Amino acid sequence: MRVDFYHLTRDPAEKAALALARKALADGERLLLVSADPAQRARISEALWSHSADSFLPHGEAGEGHEERQPVLLSDEPHALNGGRYLLIADGQWREGELPFERVFFLFDEETKQGARGVWRRLRDAGGRELHYWSQESGRWKEAG
Q1: Which of these, 78, 86, 85, 80, lies nearest to 68 by C-alpha position?
Q2: Alpha-carbon gap, residue 129 to 42, rounded angstroms
Q3: What domains does the chain contain, in order, with CATH numbers?
Q4: Share of the chain above pLDDT 90, in %
Q5: N or C: which end of the chain has fewer CB within 10 A?
């Protein structure tokens, strides 16, 4: 599994989530987007609906029905009811356990940075995962090494 850590220093989670959802769909993948915060999920949903004047990214909320048909599914738990192989954790709170995903996008900000460092160390020490760290520089995402 590949885990991409995205350090949010400039943009809010909904803007990063929109870009990553767009990339996942362009890659032909389904995405499960997880946040325990219903207000954050609502902001992300709004960003997905109105990302441009003439289109939107199709998505739904877990519990509203037809989850299996949603290319992007928003949820408060990491259960890929839509068959998604990509997981986006938007609230900076890592979910423990065996995650059956090919790729995980883990967003964190200054408030959740210490927790993200702990997650990085645990995953690195456990092995078996490819870890990448991304930071925002001049309005663009750049992989830091």
Answers
A1: 80
A2: 31
A3: 2-144 (3.40.50.10110)
A4: 77
A5: C
